[in-house]
Design goal:
With 251 residues, the protein is of the alpha/beta class. It has one domain: NAD(P)-binding Rossmann-like Domain (Rossmann fold, 3-Layer(aba) Sandwich), CATH 3.40.50.720. It contains nine helices and seven strands; from the N terminus they run E-H-E-H-E-H-E-H-H-E-H-H-E-H-H-E. Bound molecules: nicotinamide-adenine-dinucleotide. Nicotinamide-adenine-dinucleotide binds next to helix 1 and helix 8. The site of nicotinamide-adenine-dinucleotide has 30 residues, from helix 1 and helix 8.
Length: 251
């Protein structure tokens, strides 16, 4: 079996107005899926969907993944428009805009905001799509981060949130396996997106010397893992976290 077989599938990618999420959305659309580009930035999501229109099916929905009513509304809209939800990519996160600081300077409010989007957001999205997946099965792909394995300093709330995403992936895989729903995570290393370039000086060279492959990571480098996890090719894989970082870390 070599075909990704995503034709006709209905996928939701959160945080897909730009960066990695948009790269996942484009990969899924090129593979034949219809993609809902779900983002808190509705105008940017609409632009992104327009940009993909020539490649296949995509439409935009504005959502705040940290708000349960908003997430439910998004999933209901997708179910109404597409009749099904087969693939969910939990990519939305508070990430590059975070001010790096020692953990003892992180305020309780900053901690709560990161957790409410990065951890609760993924939980709420899975909770909302599960009723639409349980008859036919489905694929859930949670975007974590390789920072969990390196213990990347000065943004403990972010790193802890991505550790939570990996932990949830394992529990969800066990609880949803009987419904034919596979749940896996991707842990990207530092990847050149607009957001990460703004956050890190000399981004092109950041961490390159530490990687076995000795080059910077582009969003397209992460997309293959997402397509594989969304496809029948990974049908016996669940509960796993795949590090995609050009060989910077081995676990
Ligand atoms: N770029 C990297 O180096 C890197 C490395 C490891 C992991 N990641 C992860 O990859 C994902 C994408 O990162 P990126 O570099 O493309 O960053 P990004 O900031 O461009 O993407 C995040 C997206 O999430 C959206 N978003 C934020 N809060 C939201 C909310 N409450 N509801 C809905 N959407 C919301 C933003 O509008 C944005 O479009 C994130 O989960 C990030 O943690 C990125």
């Amino acid at each position: 079996m070599t075909d990704l077989d995503l034709a006709g599938k209905s996928a939701v990618v959160t945080g897909a107005a730009g960066g990695l999420g948009l790269a996942f959305a484009e990969g899924l659309v090129r593979a034949g899926a219809h993609v809902t580009i779900a983002d808190i930035n509705g105008a940017a999501a609409a632009m992104a969907a327009k940009g993909l229109a020539g490649l296949g099916g995509a439409h935009a929905v504005e959502v705040d993944v940290s708000d349960e009513a908003s997430v439910r509304g998004m999933v209901e809209e997708v179910a109404r428009a597409r009749g099904r939800v087969d693939i969910l990519v939990n990519n939305a996160a508070i990430y590059a805009g975070l001010v790096r600081k020692p953990f003892f300077e992180i305020t309780a409010e900053e901690w709560d905001r990161v957790m409410s989007v990065n951890v609760k957001g993924a939980f709420l999205c899975v909770k909302a799509v599960y009723p639409h997946m349980k008859e036919r099965g489905g694929r859930i792909i949670n975007i974590a981060s390789a920072t969990v394995f390196s213990g990347s300093p000065l943004w403990m709330h972010y790193v802890a949130s991505k550790g939570g995403v990996i932990a949830m992936t394992r529990v969800m895989a066990r609880e949803l396996g009987d419904y034919g729903i596979n749940v896996n995570a991707i842990a990207p290393g530092f990847t050149l997106t607009e957001a990460s370039r703004a956050a890190i000086g000399d981004a092109e060279n950041y961490g390159v010397s530490r990687g076995a492959l000795h080059r910077a990571c582009q969003p397209a480098d992460i997309v293959g893992a997402c397509l594989w996890l969304a496809s029948a090719l990974s049908g016996f894989v669940t509960g796993q976290t795949i590090i995609v970082d050009g060989g910077r870390q081995f676990i």
